[in-house]
């Protein structure tokens, strides 16, 4: 899943956490571990005997509060924080640059009825090639297709984050059959913000990358005629 959907080749060693009465996790960030964090719940949420335990993530509007501020509108907590209930077998994946935490658990001291989760990070973003083309052949052809894209990215505003795209190469003709945007954590680089830009920076970067891959030049045909899927994470720092 990490390779195919996020463009990450590995996961960090998993941690398991148990929350009983009084346990919480204060708001924090931990982006240095990897571009995506995950929480996999083993909690019997439907039959819980406690309150709290939700994963909390600050919303984008909270982190950019003054941009859309209105003195005529009152806001409540749900406008500032996204809460995710840890239902059993739920996998939650999020950008660890966003401040996040766990609401305090109250009312249960029995470990068997605790909030229990496995959590960690998807790491090592790198291209993933699956199909008929040899990895070296596919990589060489891909790099040639991307050179014009890198030049075009220099002409638009900067963004920071990871944008992951998958292209499918026709095994017989070598043409790009499809391009799919899989995941996106891009935000405008605050050091490069220009209020006069007519196009949103993230939209512009996404457009340039997508168009470059969707219209990429012809790849070599696969020896056996099998299609090839190439998942590429683009890292903007």
Tell me the radius of gyration. 21 Å
Sheet with most strands: 5 strands, antiparallel
Using the coordinates shown, work out and report the CATH topology of the largest domain.
Jelly Rolls
CATH top level of the largest domain is Mainly Beta
Secondary-structure-derived class: alpha+beta
If classified by CATH, what would the architecture of the largest domain be?
Answer: Sandwich
User: What series of H and E elements makes up the topology?
Assistant: HEEEEEHHEEEEEHEEEHE
On the 0 to 100 scale, the average pLDDT is 92
Number of strands: 14
Strand content: 25-35%
**How many individual helices?**
5
Distance between the termini: 24 Å
Description:
The chain is flat, with a radius of gyration of 21 Å. 19% of the residues lie in helices and 34% in strands. The model has no long low-confidence stretch (mean pLDDT 92). Helix 4 packs across helix 5. By secondary structure, it is an alpha+beta fold. Strands 1, 2, 4, 7 and 9 form a 5-stranded antiparallel sheet that branches. Strands 10, 11, 12, 13 and 14 form a 5-stranded antiparallel sheet that branches. A 4-stranded antiparallel sheet has the order 3-8-5-6. The chain contains 5 helices and 14 strands. A hairpin with a 6-residue loop joins strand 11 (159-169) and strand 12. 25% of the residues are buried. It folds into 2 domains: 1-123, q2cbj1_9rhob like domain (Jelly Rolls, Sandwich); 127-236, Fusion Protein Consisting Of Minor Coat Protein, Glycine Rich Linker, Tola, And A His Tag, Chain: A, Domain 2, CATH 3.30.1150.
